[in-house]
Amino acid sequence: MKATRHRARLAGIMAAALLLAGCSGPASVAERVERGLPTSLTEAQRSAVPWEQTSVLGLEDGSRFALITWGSSSCPTVVSTMEAVGTEGIEGIEGIELHLESSGGSGPCTADMAATTHELSFPDSVTARPITLTLVHAESDATSTLTLD
Fold this sequence. Notes:
By secondary structure, the chain is of the alpha+beta class. It has one domain (25-148). The chain contains two helices and eight strands, in the order H-E-H-E-E-E-E-E-E-E. The strands form two sheets. Strands 1-6-3-2 form a four-stranded antiparallel beta sheet, with no helix packed on it. The longest helix has 22 residues, at 2-23. The protein is globular.
C-alpha cells in the first residue's frame, strides 16, 4: 500500500514538473536580461532611446551590445538564437541574425508596454562595421533590421 502511494505521489510531482517546464518558454541566449532600459545608461542616453520601438545600443567596451525590445512586461520577448551572417564578397562578417520569441510568461500576458534589455556579446567572427542586425520575429515570421555603427 505504501509503495502505491509513493508511486502516485512521485507521478504527481513529475507531472507538475513537466507542466511547469512547459510554461517556461524558450531559453534566452543573452548574457543578461533586465526589465526596463539598461541601468548603465546616463539620463541623456536613456531619454534618447525611442519609446516603444526596438532599438540597439553599443555598450561601453565595444564587445557587447544591448537590444531593447518593447512588449508585455509579464511575457517579455526572448532572444532565442543569435548567428553571425555575412555578405559574399565583403571582407569580415558584418551581420547578426537574432530570433525573437515571446517568453509565454507564467500566465496571461498583460496588455502593458514595457522595455526589456538583452545584453549580448558580438560573436568573434563579427569584425566589420557598421553591423546590421536582422531581427526574425517567430510569431509572425516578419523580419526587421537595425544598424549599429
